[in-house]
Amino acid sequence: MKRRFCLMIMAVAAFMFVLPAGAFDLGDVRVNARFLTDRMAFELKLNERQYNDLYEINFDFFNNVDPYVSALSRAEARAMDAYYRYLDERNDDLRWVLPSAAYVKFMSIDYFFRPIYAVNNVCYVRVYKVYPDRRFFYYGLPVHYYSYKGAHGRVHCGGVSYYKKNFKKHYNHKVYVGHYQCRPEYRPHDFGRPNPAVRPSRPVCPPAKPLPPTKPVRPNKPVPPSVTRPPKHDHDKHDRYERHENRKEVRKSKERIDRSSTRKSRDVSSRSVREL
Q: Which secondary-structure segment (H or E) carries 15?
């Protein structure tokens, strides 16, 4: 009876072990960190020192993100903010371990640069989609695979990168100084649209008071265009003067004619009187 009970427990444990990573969580943090580090070291051609440091950085990242996996699968804003904060810290640490050329190549590979995504409310590790055989490794176990528990994380270093502080002790390569943070437009591609059901409800604002009716504004009467007279020139004055002088001459000539006619009439009348 005890043997059957033990076999039943072992069967249940084996069934839980073979569940695909992402069914309830991302699986074991060490396994994910080692697998991702192994493929990064293979594609980026890293040395042993870089391989061991890279494992510690990936371990800290998966360990920090693990409590938010359930909320990430539902695309909750709070969980995504925490995820991308830890991802930027991890990518910042990698700048001090990888040479500039290797870091540029690392940024161009999505399953290295943005390792976690969600589909149908389940989170997955991208590198497993490209390398489905999880039992094969190019390199052996990292030196601190069993002993490392996050001692070089930023929580224990006052919020500063441990690899930046110890860069000159172990490396002398050119450090990448460009933009390395994950941009906001990556969120819909990694976790889909945020679920409105889990977002906090917006406060209900009281309805605004209606504004008093405004009096209709009468349109202004159109102003007729001002008629501008052409400027007067000097020759107009000269013409008026000539016309005035002509009138004088005409008047004088009329007066002369009238005088001459009256004189003639007087002469005629005097002659007629004499003849009588």
A: helix 2-17
Nearest to 116 by CA among 46, 69, 178, 57: 69
Is residue 186 within 8 A of residue 114, CB to CB? The reply is: yes
The Cα–Cα gap between 114 and 87 comes to 8
On the 0-12 / 13-18 / 19+ scale of CB atoms within 10 A, 91 is buried
> What phi and psi values does residue 189 have, to the nearest 5 degrees?
-75, -30
**Phi, psi values for residue 219, rounded to 5°:** -70, 140
The token pair that represents 150 in the structure block: 């996050």
**Closest listed residue to residue 199, CA positions, set 74, 76, 82:** 76
Domain ranges of the chain: 19-198
> In which residue are the tokens 């004055």 written?
237
CA separation for the pair 163, 103 (Å, rounded): 15
Q: Is 132 helix (H, G, I), strand (E, B) or coil?
A: coil
Question: pLDDT tens digit string along 17-72?
Answer: 333 333 335 679 999 999 999 999 999 999 999 999 999 999 999 999 999 999 99
Q: What Å distances lie between residue 247 and 50, 242, 244, 250, 259, CA to CA?
A: 120, 9, 5, 5, 18
pLDDT band at 211; cut points 50, 70, 90? low
210 vs 260: CA distance, rounded Å: 98
Render pLDDT for 141-173 as a digit per residue (tens, 0 to 9). Answer: 999 999 999 999 998 888 899 999 999 999 999
Dihedral class, residue 216 (left if φ above 0, else alpha if ψ from -120 to 50, else beta): beta
- Report d(CA 158, CA 175) in Å as an integer: 22
Residue 249, both tokens: 């001459």
Q: How far apart are the first and last CA of the chain?
A: 194
> Confidence class of residue 174 from pLDDT cuts 50, 70 and 90?
very high
